[in-house]
Amino acid sequence: MPPFSERAADYQRRIEEFLDRRLPAPTESPHTLHEAMRYAALGAGKRVRPLLVYATGEVLGVPRGRLDPCAAAVELIHCYSLVHDDLPAMDDDDLRRGRPTVHRAFDEATAILAGDALQALAFEILASDPGLGHSTTARVAVIAALAEVCGSRGMAGGQAMDLAAERARPSIEALETMFHRKTGDLLVASVKMPCLSADRVDPAGCARLVEFARLTGLAFQIRDDLLEVEGTTEIIGKPAGSDQARAKATYPALAGVETARNRVEELHRQALAALAPFGSRAEPLVCMAENMINRQR
Q1: C-alpha separations of 226 from 36, 58, 117 in Å
Q2: Is the peptide bond before 239 cis (omega within 30 degrees of 0)?
Q3: Model confidence over 190-218: pLDDT tens digits?
Q4: Fewer Cβ atoms within 10 A, N terminus or C terminus of the chain?
Q5: What phi and psi, each to the nearest 5 degrees, are found at residue 45?
Q6: What does the DSSP assignment read for 30-58?
Q7: Is the CA virtual torsion 120, 83, 41, 213 positive or negative?
Q8: In 3D, which of 179, 160, 252, 175 has the Cα closest to residue 218?
Q9: How far, rounded to the nearest angstrom, does the alpha carbon of residue 6 sit from its chain's CA centroid?
Q10: pTM higher than 0.70 for the full model?
Q11: Can you say whether residue 186 is alpha, beta or left, with left for phi > 0 and alpha for psi between -120 and 50 degrees?
């Protein structure tokens, strides 16, 4: 079997093709809204969350066709969250993935509607796609796992905490809680959905995978904060230093760059320890963690 880095390229093509099929065509009315949805979802992302779905599926032996709806849904939720996060009322960013944000490429109202529609499409796919299988119980469990991390106790709540932390100085514990909700919970859903899609659900194994995703998600967000300090706009694809300009609470700002780096390394070790019982089967997730934590953009 080729290394996961090669398989990941196939998965990226696979999810791009799936999303292209499921997103409304720009020739379908309302044209501008559908163009904005496709602009937000296609062609530019790293596809970290879908790759995590496929990697977890490999560990558990879940067929790829059963993973496609989960991978698409979690990516659509992620894309919707970016569209809304970039809005003037939120982070007010002009660049995302190296190109104008949706509200800059189109307009603010279209961006809001595009985000709403991407979120709705995510749940439509999970509710109706035949690839997910015939088990109604499993389908409902998968939908619930994604819905659980989207609301006020998950991603939306994390964004609210992030906005409240601007020009404030929260504790490191409060900052990590915000990171878990804003970023980590969607990564947790990316491993939970394959667990719930497996022919046999192993609660203990699922708990270990969830812990891996929780720890890796926190490290991923701290790494994002470090890139804001150490990266350039050209490399990271969004305005470097924008968090500092808005006096946002970030890990390097609160604890220092060296402490932030050490925390990433500590979380990485703990995440790999959670995978230890899976042995060599965990190779896809080990590779994912390395890529997420050592990324440059």
Answers
A1: 30, 31, 32
A2: no
A3: 999 999 999 888 899 999 999 999 999 99
A4: N
A5: -85, 160
A6: SHHHHHHHHHHHSSS---HHHHHHHHHHH
A7: negative
A8: 179
A9: 21
A10: yes
A11: alpha
